[in-house]
């Protein structure tokens, strides 16, 4: 998306970078996995189609996508308390920083804008056919595709970075005793979306993801039996 095309968000465990051409082969490899496609409600695409999709997403006004890179090695990923920080969170960097190439690509995090973005008087309206102009929601998705990097706090930090970037309200997503509040406050938000507009839709059997979003203040607001999914909205 245009808004984050030159943006890098740095955490202790993960770094979020824009989805670029060099990420497409690995992303395509992930999407060959039927389980991942089912969890993300994705359709199988050819490598050529993945490249075309990346080009489209880069200029879309209603999508925000970051690739998640790990600050730690696969052996360190098994520990949530011991890891080496390659790029300090206090250091601003660009997507072309050579150190980024050494980091492992482990997943992605996305926000899809539905309806009219109520940002400023000059903001462009982002609408879909059939939606009322006064309706707006920001749908959040996250995927940690590499199994070795799951259950180590990386998805949590990735969401904290993304949601702070989208809303400009880090206090809404920080956990008690977390020392990262000051660094999250340094993140500049291009939109300042209200946290109350945040929504996620998850498979009703995906307990780890449900618990993850609950930690960040999301509550179950709807069950859609026909799709075997639940809807969660930020209500902290």
TrEMBL record:
Residues 134-219 form the N-acetyltransferase domain. PANTHER family: ALPHA_BETA-TUBULIN-N-ACETYLTRANSFERASE 9 (PTHR13256:SF16), N-ACETYLTRANSFERASE 9 (PTHR13256). GO terms for molecular function: N-acetyltransferase activity. The keyword Phosphoprotein does not apply. InterPro entries: Acyl_CoA_acyltransferase (IPR016181), GNAT_dom (IPR000182), NAT9-like (IPR039135). It comes from the Eukaryota. It holds the Pfam family Acetyltransf_3. Gene3D superfamilies: 3.40.630.30. The keyword Translocase does not apply. Keywords: Acyltransferase, Transferase. This is GNAT domain-containing protein. Belongs to the acetyltransferase family. GNAT subfamily. The lineage of its organism: Eukaryota, Fungi, Dikarya, Basidiomycota, Agaricomycotina.
